[in-house]
Automatic annotation (TrEMBL):
It comes from Christiangramia lutea. It comes from the Bacteria. Gene3D superfamilies: Tetracycline Repressor, domain 2. InterPro entries: Tet_transcr_reg_TetR-rel_C_sf, TetR_C_23. Signal peptide: none annotated. Pfam families: TetR_C_23. SUPFAM superfamilies: Tetracyclin repressor-like, C-terminal domain. Residues 91-217 form the Tetracyclin repressor-like C-terminal domain. This is TetR/AcrR family transcriptional regulator.
């Protein structure tokens, strides 16, 4: 066994999560994206190889951040014993509540990342991987629900529902970004009303909740 002389230190390479943390800190402290991987690595006493071991570009890293938000949310939910016994409606409500708690914990970064470019579509490009993951999650909810239906006639369309959940998320994301209420309470209300509306529409129940949601959104925007 080689002796440790005490004079040399083996620098531990950062893992993907640590690299993401360094990037988020850099962005928030400098209020801009690093100009190059070389500059970012040098400023953090790393090598370019350290960065490329985990990500092919800053674009890939940004997309991974949103996937991490998603994974963290699922991890929190699945640790709850009650979650498995929830109805699909309750599971989606729990997911959105949890996901926006994660976003709130990283609000400064999220607000910067989604307003960095003047073109909103360019800002949304970083959500591509999240979109795929979220739609897949939504499909599993509907698949579980359809498996309990005895007649195919009453089965719900997975594609339409999953796309609807994604559009719903984008609406809630914009709502949360503009929310000035204490503890983002208005966002919690918007989540509850919008999720109930989506499930009511799919269950062919009366549209009172749609009207209720519309009144709420009108009140919030006119206040």
């Amino acid at each position: 066994m080689a002796k440790n002389t005490g004079n040399s230190k083996v620098k531990k390479k950062p893992n993907a999560d640590q690299m993401i943390a360094l990037y988020m800190d850099y962005v928030l402290e400098n209020e801009k994206t690093p100009r190059s991987v070389y500059k970012f690595a040098k400023d953090n006493d790393l090598t370019e190889a350290d960065f490329y071991e985990h990500f092919g570009s800053f674009e890939g890293l940004r997309k991974t951040i949103w996937e991490k938000f998603f994974d963290n949310s699922l991890s929190v939910m699945e640790k709850s014993k009650e979650y498995k016994s929830f109805s699909n409606r309750e599971k989606l409500l729990t997911f959105f509540y949890t996901f926006f708690e994660v976003l709130t914990a990283n609000r400064s970064y999220v607000l910067y990342a989604l307003s960095e470019h003047e073109q909103s579509l360019k800002n949304l490009d970083q959500l591509k991987h999240l979109r795929r993951r979220m739609k897949k999650y939504a499909k599993t909810l509907i698949q579980d629900g359809n498996s309990e239906k005895s007649l195919r006639l009453f089965e719900q369309n997975e594609m339409i529902f999953s796309e609807g959940v994604w559009v719903q998320f984008l609406f809630l994301l914009k709502f949360w970004m503009d929310d000035n209420s204490a503890g983002f309470e208005s966002t919690d209300v918007a989540i509850e009303k919008s999720v109930n509306t989506v499930f009511d529409l799919f269950d062919n129940t009366p549209l009172e909740r749609v009207v209720d949601l519309g009144k709420f959104l009108w009140k919030e925007r006119m206040a």
